[in-house]
Hints:
Elements: H1 9-35, H2 50-71, H3 76-90
Amino acid sequence: MSDFPELxxxxxxxxxxxxxxxxxxxxxxxxxxxxxxxxxNPTVMDGPNNREVLENExxxxxxxxxxxxxxxxxxxxxxxxxxxxxxxxxEKWLHHQGTSDV
Length: 102
């Protein structure tokens, strides 16, 4: 038995896609933290603002997740169940949610 993970080329490709899209979300978040949601790349005429870039990249992650679910790499039911559990546990660690400032 090899120590190398036995992944098919299709599985590797889907994981690479998810990894790439997660990196792009992290980059979009960094831009928002530094410049705000309304800021945009001044070198791109009529380009999207940082909020729109984040929304776009989150959509790309949803696509990668859907592809992995459809291929059987991950369980849609388990992912949904995990999201519900996280919603129930994360709130005690958040300090500013539910306040009047958006």
